Amino acid sequence: MSEMNPFQIAQHQLDMAAKKLGLDEATHELLRWPMREFRFTLPVRMDNGKVKVFQGYRVQYNDARGPNKGGIRWHPDETIDTVRALAAWMTWKTAVADLPLGGGKGGVTCNPKEMSDGEKERLARAWMRAAARELGVHRDVPAPDVYTTPQIMAWMMDEYEHIVGHSHPGVITGKPLALGGSQGRHDATARGGVYCVREACKVKSIDPSKCTYAIQGFGNAGQYAATLHREILGGGKLVAVSDSSGGVINRGGIDPERVVAHKLETGKVAGFPGTEPITNEALLELDVDVLYPSALEGVITGKNAKNIKCKISCELANGPTTPEADDILFGKGVMVLPDFLANSGGVTVSYFEQVQNTYNYYWSRDDVNQQLDRKITDAFTAVHKMQQQAKTHMRLAAYMVSVTRVAEACKLRGWV
Ligand code: NAD
Which ranges in 35-187 belong to alpha helices (H)? Predict the structure, then answer.
């Protein structure tokens, strides 16, 4: 089980839901595989004058409910299996949030930390030139993900508009505000996660204002979770944070704003005044009320799940918990808010961005946050209701909600 690649994990999770729902064989098989996959070979001229060849991907998993939607990751460990898994999870995510969209994902195997802005721009444009014919508001709409930024989205949108010859800002979301981005997109993923934690606290009769919390991964999702947890829940004590270079802990509490400022200034959380070092592994096992895994996939496994002590694990990262670990955590009474529910705030506001681009009229930040709260609260309620009915863990319940919705769309189209 622990040797499954991310896509095999995604298929296994679907299999469990299909079994529990008694899904017919053809629908089950259809939902086990991406509908379309693209692999691009991308030659890019580097600053030293030499050409470097990158591998890029786009997977369109299932568009029965609407155009595909999903981010683009730039990471040295990116593989087609990671992209497939993330595309599957996007399908379940748009369905659980009840958005009229399908699921997709893209990626490039590269190390953006070693690339100049010029090299990143040339890679972004090369990826868009290769993918353009498969994209568009009615086909597939990418967005930022690990190590891709609003600036990268802006270059990609510009390249796409050069190719099609007209304005088409909705081809990509997560753009800068000045180019048709949405208010509230920057913190939407973390905000959605914190709304889920608020609802989970109600169910578990926990006073959210007295929660202790820890965050693994201190990028876009993790940093906003640090500050929004206190803002939305009216309190709480942040005790530890980490990034790829290690973590820091102070059981007396870490000031969220100050540690974010330190990270932005120095590039790491390590060395934040008044804290002790802690490893990424030890952070996961802290005795806190809420854990936010906000880095990469596969960090909570059959090996460490028995040591996890939090009451709620809010998965801002995609795929941080393996299926084996899920069962162990359920047995221990840990409420796992599964990735595709907990981090669906990002794609929900991406969808709002696309809607605003299409009718060329823009909402206020309060409007966006209010609509997001309504969507996430409805999604949590649907999943929790399913969990109570099916007497299973939240991930399987969330799958059951999503798979039911996607299967219904496939059947109504006459695909199965
Ligand atoms: P990011 O690039 O802004 O940050 C990633 C963070 O993870 C960085 O702080 C990095 O140092 C840290 N990290 C990398 N490797 C690590 C390791 N081995 N141990 C600990 N920390 C490590 O990315 P992000 O946008 O914050 O995304 C984080 C996770 O959230 C990803 O799984 C992503 O797919 C998911 N997610 C993000 C969004 C979004 O809108 N940003 C939406 C949905 C899901």
Answer: 80-96, 117-131, 150-164
